[in-house]
Amino acid sequence: MFVNQSTASAILVVALHKHGTGAERLVDALVGGAVAGVIGVGLFPAEPMKLLRNAEHELLRSLAGALSHVAELVRRRTVAQPDWTLAAAQDIHSQLGSLAAARATARANVRIAPRRWHLRGAVTLEETRISRLDLLSNAVLSLLRVSADALEEGESLPAGVSGGVTAMADVLTMLARAPQPWPAELCSAVTARVEETIAAVGSQAGARAPVIASIVRATGRDVLNVLPRPLD
């Protein structure tokens, strides 16, 4: 808010360019920045945990939606619509950008706002966990691309591979739909489904089936890494 006030004042000074305008806009900028600091930092600072969880939810929603669509295409052996893969990748990257912004805001929040200092430890742990979403997103993007290419070239994927893609879509949907913090029962169910899928995919034959199977296993491991660690 302080930066916005300063930028707006600078633009007005250049645009209006009248006698006394610079001093008046400087005072306005200082007053606006001070008010923004008091309200945004002192009185009503943002809730960092909520910022992180909202951004995580939107990213998981994007990942789950894209992977569910691919799972349906694999099941029906249908080629994706033109440019769908690109649009899905752009949406995922957009959500990753929002997640990075939320992480930066949360770090600044607990560092600057006195009312949020007590959350520094919790935010550090949560941010460390959420940072693993980058790897999960990369695995999902790889799964989208390789699966779409296989379908486009008419490759028949084994049932174990298509089942693995469906399972990863299911667990991401479960996580995206559940409110946070995730209950232990949900984490246990996701862990069991992922471990079962990793074991079931196994080695596959074919042009892209082994690659997809490998990415499914990597996706499963990344999902497990995103789950919160149980307290000792």
Task: Please provide a written account of the structure.
The chain is mainly alpha-helical and 232 residues long. The chain folds into two domains: 2-43; 48-226, Four Helix Bundle (Hemerythrin (Met), subunit A) (Up-down Bundle), CATH 1.20.120. Helices cover 79% and strands 0% of the residues. It is built from nine helices and no strands. The longest helix is centred in the first third of the chain and has 29 residues, at 48-76. The two termini are 41 Å apart.
Largest sheet composition: none
Radius of gyration: 23 Å
Shape: flat
CATH architecture of the largest domain: Up-down Bundle
Beta content: under 5%
Give the % helix: over 70%
Name of the level-1 CATH class of the largest domain: Mainly Alpha
| CATH topological fold name of the largest domain | Four Helix Bundle (Hemerythrin (Met), subunit A)
Stretches where pLDDT is under 50 for at least 5 consecutive residues are 36-44
Number of domains: 2
Distance between the termini: 41 Å
**Structural class by secondary-structure content:** mainly alpha
Short description:
With 232 residues, the protein is an all-alpha fold. 79% of the residues lie in helices and 0% in strands.
